[in-house]
Amino acid sequence: MNVVIVGGGTAGWMTAAGLASLLADTGLNITLVESEAIGTVGVGEATLPHLRFFNQTIGIDEYDFMAATRATVKLGIEFVDWARKGDRYIHPFGDYGIPNDGIGFHQFWRRFAEMLGPISNFSLPVVAAELGRFEPPSSDERSALSTFRFAYQFDATRYAPYLRRHAEARGVTRIEGRVVDVALDEQGDIDRLSLEDGREIEGDLFVDCSGFFGLLIEKALKTGYDQWTDWLPCDRAVAAPCEHAEPLLPYTRATAREAGWQWRIPLQHRTGNGYVYASQFISDQDAEDALVQSLEGPLLAEPKILRFVTGKRKKLWNRNCVAIGLSGGFLEPLESTSIYLIQQGITYLIELFPNLADVDTLRSEYNRMMDLEFERIRDFLILHYHATERSDAPLWEMMRALDVPDSLKEKMALFRARGQVQTYDHGLFLEPSWLAVYLGQRVIPEHYDPRVNEHPERELLSQLTGMKQHIRQSAEKMATHQTWIDAHCPAPMEALV
Amino acid sequence: MMRDAGPITIIGAPAEAWFAACLLARFAPVPAEIIRVNVRGNENAENETLIARPQMRRVHSSLGLDLAKAGARLVCDWPAGQGRSISFGAIGAPYKGVSFVSIWQRAKALKIEAGSLLDYAVPAQGFAISRSDYADALRSIALQVGVRETDRPEGTQVCVSRDVGGNADTRKLGAAALPISLTSALTLLALERSVRAWIDCWPWTSDDVSVCAAEFERRLELITSPLEDMQSLLLEGPQGVSEGSLAQHRIALWRQLGRIAPIDHDLFEPQEWIAALMLSGVTPEGGERLAQSLTVEEIKAHLDAVRAREIAHAE
Fold first, then answer.
1. Number of other residues whose CB lies within 10 A of the CB of residue A183
2. Is A160 in the same domain as A221?
3. Residue A126 and which of A247, A261, A436, B101 are 20 to 30 A apart at CA?
4. Which residue has the higher pLDDT, B314 or B42?
C-alpha cells in the first residue's frame, strides 16, 4: 500500500515519522513530497504534554530532542489581563488539590477561599512555575510530584528537520518537488500527483499536510470548510523572535491586548513572540508596531505575518485523503493546540488505518472523533474571550456580548451556578483546565456544594492549610528551570551564541 | 446540608427503593430523616437475582453494605439472556499498542490456534444477590440512618421501578426512566447511575433549578442511550438497532475493524460490548493494521501469556 504525504512541515514530518515508526513493517510504502521553495509555518512553539507521548512512541530520546530543538519546559500558560486589566492566572498542566468523598476539591476551596487565597496555591505546577522551578513528575501516586505533567516550548522550525532524519532512517522516501496537478479517478478519489518537473506520484492513500492551502483536501476534492470566525475572530498573527531579557521561565505567557493577544515563549536561545489579532480591529502595521515596541530584548529577525481562518474542514478524511495539520483546520494558538491536533490526527489514522477496500465506516469514525476534538477545543478557546469584563476595546466588547455555541452556554451556566464542570472522556481539556480558566476569567460559582459543610470546619481548614504548605515546600525543593535544562538538555553552545 | 428540604418519597420494588434511599441518605445534600420509602410491586420476583458489578464495590462499601455478609455470591459475569453471559473482566491485554482483538484476529489470519475471543476474558469479580436479601440488607442500613418506611407517599415522589404508579410530576430513575423493560442484570447499574446523576444535579437554591434540570436530562440520556442499545442488541441482535444510529455505527466499526467506538461516559466497558456483539453473531472481519507489525512468535507468545495468566488467576 502506498501512502503519499504532501507537505514537509511539522504536520508532514510528524505524520511520516509516526506512520514509519509504527506501520512501516506492515508493507506500507511512505513517500513525502515537499518543496524547499515553499516555506513552512513552523506551527506552534509551545506544546501540550501529549507531545511527550508521541515522541516516546516513535522512539525519540527526550533530552536529545530538547537540545536539538532548543526546548525549555512548559508547566502551563500564564494569562495576563484577560478578564480585567491587571489580572493574571496560570492554566497549569495538573490538578488542584485532592477530591474528598466524591466532592471536587474546588468546592472545599470555595468555602474557605478568602482564608486560603487563590486556588493556584493548591497546584504544584503553578507554584513551581511562579518560582521558576522544575523537576520531572513522579510516578509515585502518593507524591505531590505525581499531580502534574509538563510540555515543551521549542523551536518548531527545528522539529520537522529532526523528525525528517528519524523518518528517513525508517524508510520514508522524500521527494523534492512542487505539486502542480492532482488527478482524480472515475470515483472521484485522488489517483496521482503531478510535479513541476513532470514526475507523477501514484498512491492509495494521500495525507494532505500542505498547510492552509489545502492542496488536496480542498483544491482537488472541494471538501468545504466550517468557518468559526464569528466565535474566534482573530485571523492574523505577526511573529518576531527577540533576545532574552528575563530568567528562563517554565511557562508560556499570553497577554490580552487591544485587538487580540500576545504570546511570549522562552526558548533556550531566544524568546518567541507574536501578536494574534483580529484584522477588523487593527491594521497589520499597527499590530507589528505594537509587538515590536513591547519586546523585552533586541529583535532577532524581521516580523512575519501569518493569515488564517479559524474553523475546520467539513470532513478531515474525505475520499482517500486525510487532512492533517493546518490543511484540516486551525483554532488559533491561544492554548497551543495545533500540534496536539496533528498528533491526534495521526493517532486516529494509525488506529483506523484501512486494510479493506471499504473504508466508509473508518472515515466516519475518524471524522466523528476529530470533530469532537475540534469542537471541544473551540468552546474552550471561546471561553477565554467571552468570559471577560473588559470593555476598553471593540474586540473585547464584541466578545463579551458574543452569542456563544449552545454547548458552551450550558457548560458556563452549570459552572456559574454551582461550580460543576461538564466533563467528557474524549477530548483535550479536562476538568482542571476548565476550572483554571473559569476561575481565572472570574466565572466564580455562586454557591459551593452544601455537602462541604458536613465536614468539621477546623479539621478541614487545617488539612487544606497543610496541603498548601506541602505544595509550596515541594516546589521550593525543585531545581531552577535553568539549572535543570543546563544539567539535562542544553542546546549546543554555538546555538546560544 | 439543606435542612429545610421537604419530604422525598421513593416508590418502587423493595430492592430498588431501599438502594435508592441509601444512596440519597449517603450522598444527597439533605438529611436522611426526610427520606421515605414506599414499597410497591415485584411481589413475584423476590428470588430474582440482581447483579452488582465490580465497579459498584466502592459504592456499596461507602453505604456500609458488605454484600458477602448479606448473602451475595461472587460472579465473574452477568447473564445476558438465552443462556449467554457477559464477563466483567477485560478480554486479553494489548501488546505493543495493538489491541487484543486485533492480535486475536491476526492470529486467526495466520492460522495460529487462538480459540474463541471470549475465552480470553480475565476474571473480575462482581456479586449476584437475591432481591430479597439485597432489600433486607439495605433496609436495615437505611432505617439506621433515619430513613422511614411509609404507606402514604408525600412530598417529592421518585419512582425507581417500572409499572408501580406515579404521576406526571413523579421523577423517574433507573428502570422507571427507560422505555424498555430492563434485564435484572442491569437494574442496579441503571439505578445507581441515575440516582448519582440526580444527586449531582440537586438544586442547591431556587436559582439553579433550571440549570440543574437541563444537566440532569443530559446525564440521564447518557445513561439510557447505551442501556437501550445494549438491550436491543442482546434481545434482537444487530437488526434491532435503528438506521443511522450511533449503535449502528458502533456495530459497523466493530465488524470492520474489531474496534469499539469510544463514547463519552459509556455505561459499559469495551469488553462488554465485545461480548454482546460476539454473542449476537457480529464478528470482526478485519483488525488494526498495526497488528501486522507483530511477528508470529510474538503473537503466539502473547496469546500464551494471556491464557496462562487467566488460568493462574482461575486457579
1. 12
2. yes
3. A261
4. B42
- Interchain pair A410, B287: CB under 8 A: no
Cβ atoms of A328 and A344 closer than 8 Å:
no
Domain membership flag for residue A490: no
For A337, list phi and psi in degrees, rounded to 5: -95, -5
pLDDT tens, position by position, A203-215: 999 999 999 999 9
| CA atoms within 13 A of residue A336's CA, in its CB half-sphere | 28
Contacts (Cβ under 8 Å, ≥6 apart) of B168? none
Is A102 touching B (CB cutoff 8 A)? yes
Q: Does B264 touch chain A (CB under 8 A)?
A: yes
Question: In terms of domains, do A355 and A456 share one?
Answer: no
- Asked if A74 is an active-site residue, the reply is yes
Give tens-digit pLDDT for B53-68. Answer: 999 999 999 999 999 9
> Residue B24: is its pLDDT beyond 90?
yes
Nearest residue in chain B measured CA to CA from A449 = B204
Any A CB within 8 A of B96 CB: no
Domain that residue A173 falls in: 2-71+154-226+309-374
A259 CA to chain B: closest CA distance, Å?
A: 33
Cell of B156: 417529592
* A26 shares a domain with A165: yes
Mean pLDDT within A271-276: 96
Q: What's the confidence (pLDDT) of residue A412? A: 96
The pLDDT value recorded for residue A136 is: 96
What integer pLDDT is reported at residue B205 of this predicted model?
87
What's the rounded Cα separation, in Å, for the pair A296 and A292? 9
Given CB atoms, is B252 within the 8 Å cutoff of chain A? yes
> Does A58 reach chain B within 8 Å, measured CB to CB?
no
Contact A362 B289 (CB under 8 A): no
Q: Are residues A415 and A445 in the same domain?
A: yes
Question: What domains lie within chain B, and their CATH numbers?
Answer: 8-89+124-279 (3.50.50.60)
Interface test with A, best of B211, B217, B222, B259 (most A CBs within 10 A): B211
CB contact under 8 A, B29 and A364: no
Is A391 among the domain residues?
A: no
pLDDT the model gives residue B310: 62
Mean pLDDT of A260-287: 97
Judgement on whether residues A33 and A181 belong to the same structural domain of the protein: yes
B193 Cβ partners below 8 Å, 6+ apart? B223, B267
Indicate whether A321 and A459 sit together in one domain: no
Does residue A26 sit at the B interface (CB-CB below 8 Å)? yes
- CA-CA-CA-CA torsion for B272, B275, B277, B281, nearest 10 degrees? -170
Average pLDDT, chain A: 95
Q: Do B285 and A356 touch (CB under 8 A)?
A: yes
Of A307, A335, A354, the last residue of a domain is A307
- CB-CB under 8 Å, A451 with B1: yes
Q: Is residue A299 part of a domain?
A: yes
Please report, as a single letter, which amino acid is at residue A274: G
**A168 & A261 share domain:** no
Residue-level pLDDT at A381: 98
Query: Nearest CA of chain B to the CA of A460: how many Å?
Result: 16
Q: Is any Cβ of chain B less than 8 angstroms from the Cβ of A414? A: yes
Q: Output the pLDDT for position B312.
A: 55
pLDDT for A52: 97
Binary contact (B29, A414; C-beta < 8 A): no
ipTM of this model? 0.93
State residue A2's pLDDT score.
95
Q: Which of A356, A414, A450 sits opposite B215 (nearest CB)?
A: A414
Give the domain CATH number at A332.
3.50.50.60
CB contact (8 A) between residue A454 and residue B289: no
Q: Which of A74, A312, A315, A411 is catalytic?
A: A74
Residue type, B211: V
Give CA–CA dist A430/A445, Å, rounded.
18
pLDDT at B291: 95
pLDDT of residue B315: 44
Q: What is the C-alpha separation between A164 and A301, in angstroms, rounded?
A: 25
Q: Domains in chain A: how many in total?
A: 3
pLDDT band at A141 (very low <50, low <70, confident <90, very high): confident
CA distance B293 to chain A (A): 5
Co-location of A33 and A138 in the same domain: no
